[in-house]
């Protein structure tokens, strides 16, 4: 509530901290930053928010600041009856910002507990940061620009955050945000991916040295392990550790990315659904939904999701590529050519127009224009646009049927460690070369656990025989150990089935005959064992029994207590006394 841009940085930062703090409460499903910020400075009714975000309750507020005083108003509104539960005004000194963030977060959590039911709330939700308020304000300013995600604002944000680091070298957050900025620019094609990841790495290393156990550190490590190191096992470990620390849409989206690389598209869709639930107004989530339909060759279904992504963020560079390709692959090459020809702005700069038109000429058998396009694309192989140039050259040659040339280009991309190699793996345009020995060898070197090269299973009516039950029982146990799926409180039978690449009714049979358990019993057994290990750790001595239970994947106090007594023959309290 001020025309001062400095106040906007501060207000955005305060809002984001409160969102992150409330997201730490296991029983709450908290809409993420992007979707919450979508309604900033807009006049909307409680009913509209309920319908658009699918939430029962929302928090709104305002901040007025001056050099010596800060007034923060907060109110809680029930979206069903448009009823104000409460409102509160906090008059505080700006120097106490970290205490204020924690105070307001705890206050909101307590009010939620009073009005919607029991919640396990930690003593502190926002950890204090040992930096002066003036430097923290500069940090919020840098993050404000980085979160705009385009090249100009990202570089501006990086410059601000570098100055923050110079003043406070032991402050972990600016290192993480610079790493994030470079990673985003590399992933979005605003910088060559390898160059961007190289620039990002030192900042991530320093952030982890300063704060190794934050969810953001773990998430950034997951990205590095996948896209730079091509180690999916480690990538999953870090992503699941991040999810264990905080339920957030970008973590679910990241796991969906990794599953996509492996070709596990149904599992990827399940995780993306959770990301969309937490952040329905994040453009990248809608884009990725369209991308998964594209990979499944459901082209007409995919296009509305890409258009929705552009509606939310017109500068997002990915959707135009796939809108055009979906038109092309659904038998509309002339419409696709017209679409690519109409693109302006960032899409021209990132080769989308050139590459897309060249793909259309290949499909239309216009050899002369196609060759001209290929020649121009080749001229970009020594520039900052090398990633996009390689991608389009591979796709154009695949459409032309030049399979040997496709594999030569894929091999070059592999030798140059270009991240695009991982997303060639599930590409429908490359179906003609997927079973070529050279292509398979490259893909299996990049992604050893590659389901695209396993023979597709044919399911029979009689479900699984005894040998198959033994085989899949071992496989399921290993998956549960490797991925720690049970830590996800929303895990479903469908999720479990997607990891095994089996229909859900097969997995239900597998659990009953292989383990003599139903789905809930099977998963809760892992959660119970996790709880028994965690409850005895010194670091958890200050936590309540239910806090540890929720950290172990349980999502209900009643379910936890009932299951514990059934399996252990005693209550959790008695167990703890006997084993402390």
Automatic annotation (TrEMBL):
The keyword Transcription regulation applies. InterPro entries: Homeodomain-like_sf, HTH_AraC, TPR-like_helical_dom_sf, TPR_rpt. It holds the Pfam family TPR_8. Residues 477-578 form the HTH araC/xylS-type domain. Keywords: DNA-binding, TPR repeat, Transcription, Transcription regulation. TPR repeats lie at residues 249-282, 283-316. SUPFAM superfamilies: HCP-like, Homeodomain-like. It comes from the Bacteria. The keyword DNA-binding applies. PANTHER family: ARAC-FAMILY TRANSCRIPTIONAL REGULATOR. This is Helix-turn-helix domain-containing protein.
């Amino acid at each position: 509530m001020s025309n001062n841009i400095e106040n906007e940085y501060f207000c955005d930062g305060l809002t984001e901290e409160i969102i992150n703090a409330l997201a730490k409460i296991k029983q709450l499903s908290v809409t993420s930053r992007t979707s919450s910020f979508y309604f900033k400075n807009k006049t909307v009714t409680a009913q509209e928010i309920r319908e658009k975000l699918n939430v029962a309750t929302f928090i709104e507020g305002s901040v007025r600041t001056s050099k010596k005083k800060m007034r923060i108003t907060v109110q809680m509104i029930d979206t069903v009856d448009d009823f104000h539960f409460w409102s509160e005004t906090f008059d505080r000194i700006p120097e106490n910002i970290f205490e204020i963030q924690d105070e307001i977060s705890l206050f909101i959590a307590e009010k939620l507990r009073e009005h919607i039911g029991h919640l396990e709330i930690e003593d502190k939700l926002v950890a204090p940061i040992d930096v002066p308020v003036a430097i923290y304000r500069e940090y919020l300013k840098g993050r404000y620009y980085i979160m705009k995600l385009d090249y100009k604002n990202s570089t501006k944000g990086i410059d601000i955050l570098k100055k923050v680091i110079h003043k406070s070298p032991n402050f972990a957050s600016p290192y993480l945000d610079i790493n994030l900025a470079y990673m985003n620019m590399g992933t979005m094609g605003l910088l060559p991916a390898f160059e961007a990841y190289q620039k990002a790495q030192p900042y991530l290393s320093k952030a982890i040295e300063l704060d190794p156990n934050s969810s953001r550190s773990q998430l950034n490590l997951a990205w590095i392990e996948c896209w730079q190191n091509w180690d999916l096992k480690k990538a999953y470990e870090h992503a699941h550790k991040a999810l264990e620390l905080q339920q957030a849409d970008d973590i679910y989206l990241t796991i969906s990315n990794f599953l996509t690389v492996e070709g596990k598209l149904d599992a990827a869709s399940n995780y993306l659904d959770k990301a969309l639930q937490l952040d329905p107004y994040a453009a990248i989530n809608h884009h990725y939904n369209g991308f998964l339909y594209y990979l499944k060759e459901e082209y007409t279904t995919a296009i509305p999701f890409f258009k929705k992504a552009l509606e939310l963020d017109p500068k997002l560079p990915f959707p135009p590529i796939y809108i055009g390709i979906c038109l092309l692959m659904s038998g509309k090459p002339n419409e696709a050519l017209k679409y690519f020809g109409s693109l302006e702005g960032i899409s021209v700069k990132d080769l989308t127009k050139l590459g897309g038109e060249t793909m259309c000429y290949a499909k239309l058998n216009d050899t002369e224009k196609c060759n001209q396009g290929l020649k121009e694309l080749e001229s970009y192989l020594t520039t900052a646009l090398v990633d996009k140039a390689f991608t389009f050259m591979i796709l154009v040659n695949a459409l032309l049927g030049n399979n040997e040339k496709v594999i030569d280009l894929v091999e070059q991309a592999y030798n140059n460690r270009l991240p695009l190699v991982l997303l060639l793996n599930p590409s429908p345009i490359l179906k003609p070369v997927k079973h070529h020995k050279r292509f398979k060898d490259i893909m299996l070197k990049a992604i050893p656990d590659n389901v695209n090269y396993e023979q597709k299973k044919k399911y029979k009516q009689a479900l699984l025989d005894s040998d198959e039950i033994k085989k899949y029982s071992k496989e399921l146990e290993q998956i549960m150990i490797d991925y720690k799926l049970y830590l996800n409180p929303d895990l479903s039978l469908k999720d479990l089935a997607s990891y095994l690449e089996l229909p859900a009714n097969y997995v239900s049979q597998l659990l009953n005959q292989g383990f003599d358990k139903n789905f809930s019993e099977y998963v809760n057994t892992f959660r119970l064992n996790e709880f028994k290990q965690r409850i005895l750790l010194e670091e958890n001595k200050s936590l309540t029994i239910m806090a540890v239970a929720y950290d172990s994947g349980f999502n209900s106090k009643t379910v936890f207590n009932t299951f514990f007594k059934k399996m252990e023959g005693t209550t959790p309290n008695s167990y703890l006394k006997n084993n402390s």
